[in-house]
Design a protein that fits this description.
Its EC number is 4.2.1.47. It contains 10 helices and 13 strands. With 327 residues, it is α/β, with parallel strands linked by helices. Strands 3-2-1-4-5-6-11 form a 7-stranded parallel beta sheet, sandwiched between helices. A two-stranded parallel sheet has the order 7-10. The chain is globular. The structure holds NADPH dihydro-nicotinamide-adenine-dinucleotide phosphate and guanosine-5'-diphosphate-rhamnose (GDR).
């Protein structure tokens, strides 16, 4: 039985990846942060009793800022695969907390890579790199596109990307960068724009709210479906060698068009319900991200199936029936 560690198991991607690995027969070890309230909502449906001798999902307390804990966990679990998904992942928040974002999203990566090297196990490592690293470089973006990050988050991810590559080149580690474009789902954090708009469209249609306040409607993003992207992560670690891959749909959608998709789905005129709030603008914006995932298709046989208009429908539908684990 293969054993995997997932950092960020309580996040959107962590929950889908856990489902996938359990379905493939893995023993999955997740690192969770201690918090005064439960933060395991997205994986609650996967919970397994620790007293069950067949238990294949095990949760451990840990934090990316605590190197010694990362070492003891790697030593204890001795995983075949490590999926490093944990991060302060909100771009707008990274402008408010640049140092914390650098410490977790950036240096946290080094702590984990170094823990693996110190323990000396032969493990395959997945780094959650991001299209935000391309920032101001115009689309289409692929594995050879130069980085030009536009936020503390983007800069921290560029550092993490190069650390993963350096451990591959310097120490021979099987380290992979998955350069993922935006991927969404009914489990997306509520403050990311797709979920915020899907929730608002449903709440307004149900008469619970009247308006949603947004920032830049002109930004272009390449929105895919998170459940499909975790399959791509897994395939990257099954390849013959460690490499870097873009995952994207190749489809451009503005925030305004996303708003339209969501409001059309509930038969509402969005212009009557969307208001501007400058709080949601970023000091430096990423204007356009459109990915070219042809390398992943050619080498991994991975291709995005769900396009943004269909994804908007899935997300609004999930809000209307008020359940997050349905899709
Ligand atoms: P989420 O924000 O949903 O999840 C982040 C996870 O990281 C949560 O489990 C969170 O725990 C955990 N975490 C945050 N800080 C720490 C810390 N200091 N120590 C331990 N755990 C921590 O992100 P996604 O699932 O959307 O994304 C997964 C990864 O992929 C992230 O690294 C993100 O930056 C990257 N990425 C995401 C893309 C996307 O479109 N979704 C695109 C490209 C890259 P808690 O639940 O306690 O907050
Ligand atoms: P992003 O996602 O910054 O691309 O990072 P987000 O959904 O936060 O923003 C997308 C675009 O929408 C614009 N926008 C708003 N954004 C938010 N959050 N709230 C608003 O009210 C709003 N109004 C307009 C933004 O300016 C932006 O242009 C996500 C994260 O998951 C990262 O971790 C990941 O690396 C990248 O995707 C790829």
């Amino acid at each position: 039985m293969k054993r995997a560690i997932i950092t960020g198991i309580t996040g959107q991607d962590g929950s889908y990846l856990t489902e996938l690995l359990l379905s493939k027969g893995y023993e999955v070890h997740g690192i969770i942060r201690r918090s005064s309230t439960f933060n395991t909502g997205r994986i609650e449906h996967l919970y397994q009793d620790p007293h069950d001798p067949e238990q294949r999902l095990v949760l451990h307390y840990g934090d990316l800022t605590d190197s010694s804990r990362l070492v003891t966990l790697i030593e204890k679990v001795r995983p075949d695969e490590v999926y490093h998904l944990a991060a302060q992942s909100h771009v707008r928040v990274s402008f408010d907390e640049p140092e914390y974002t650098g410490n977790t999203t950036g240096v946290g990566t080094t702590r984990l890579l170094e823990a693996i090297r110190m323990v000396g196990i032969d493990t395959r490592y997945y780094q959650a790199s991001s299209s935000e690293m391309f920032g101001a470089t115009p689309p289409p973006q692929n594995e050879d596109t130069p980085f030009y990050p536009r936020s503390p988050y983007g800069a921290a991810k560029v550092y993490g990307y190069w650390m993963a590559r350096n451990y591959r080149e310097a120490h021979g580690m099987f380290a992979v960068n998955g350069i993922l474009f935006n991927h969404e789902s009914p489990r997306r954090g509520e403050t990311f724009v797709t979920r915020k708009i899907a929730r608002a469209a449903a709440a307004i249609a149900q008469g619970k709210e009247q308006f949603v306040y947004l920032g830049n409607l002109d930004a272009i993003r390449d929105w895919g479906y998170a459940a499909e992207y975790v399959e791509g992560m897994w395939r990257m670690l099954q390849a013959d060698q460690g490499d870097d891959y873009v995952l994207a749909t190749g489809t451009a959608t503005t925030v305004r068009e996303w708003v339209q998709y969501c409001f059309d789905h509930v038969n509402l005129d969005w212009e009557k319900h969307v208001r501007f709030d400058e709080t949601y603008l970023r000091p430096t914006e990423v204007d356009a991200l459109i990915g070219d995932a042809s390398k992943a298709e050619k080498i991994l046989g991975w291709k995005a199936q769900t396009m943004p208009d269909e994804l908007a429908r899935i997300m609004v539908e999930a809000e209307l029936v008020d359940r997050i684990d349905s899709v």
